[in-house]
Amino acid sequence: MPATRTSAGSVAGLLATADSLLTAGLGGPLTPAGRARGAAYALRIALEAAVDAVLTAEEAGLRQVTMRAKLLCLRHYAGPDLARRVNALWSGLSTGCKYHHDEIGPGHAQVRAWQTAVEELVTELAVPGTDLNFPQQTGMQRPQTEVRMAAYDGEHT
User: How far is CA 146 from the centre of its chain?
Assistant: First the structure.
């Protein structure tokens, strides 16, 4: 589910929702597994919203592409290390959000670890001035050397 708003308030609200799902008592209709999966959804959407905020600030056209494509583009705007960590966390959260009848969902401790990681990455993504200037690739540059053709002007055997 893609995030529709990228304001800091919506990210904070999603992080608070995940926290309340993980800290609330066992009352209500949700089971502990349902709470953990719901928190994983909220964390994934918060991470998506933070990525959207970075990319929308740079390129308005990136708003309409898939999250996988956005994660590929993030490497250019946030650097390879941060982009790799965001991608790995997003992949883990996506797996944790899926329900399979033959698998146990993410545990409370796993979702808490994801929560800490999402909070750290959201903070890193929000840091202004992460604009990295990558050199434009123009192909292979050959060193300028003189080519001596005299050896090939008839002395060829």
Answer: 48
Q: Would you state the structure tokens that stand for residue 106, as one six-digit string?
A: 């993410």
Query: In 59-107, which residue ranges form alpha helices assigned H by DSSP?
Result: 67-78, 80-97
What are the φ and ψ backbone dihedral angles of 135, each rounded to 5 degrees? -65, 145
CB-CB contact of 85 with 70 (8 Å): no
Q: Is residue 151 part of a domain?
A: no
Q: Between vectors from CA 5 to CA 100 and to CA 94, what angle results, nearest 5°?
A: 20
Tell me how many domains the chain contains.
1
- Please report whether residue 66 resides in a domain: yes
Q: What confidence tens digit (pLDDT) does each residue in 30-79 have? A: 788 888 999 999 999 999 999 998 888 777 677 778 899 999 989 988 89
Domain carrying residue 43: 8-128
CA 122, distance to chain mean position in Å, is 10
How far apart (Å, rounded) are the C-alpha atoms in residues 84 and 75?
8
* Residue 141 falls inside a structural domain: no
How many residues does the structure list for the chain?
A: 157
In a domain, 150, yes or no: no
DSSP state of 142: P
Strands (DSSP E) contained in the chain are: none
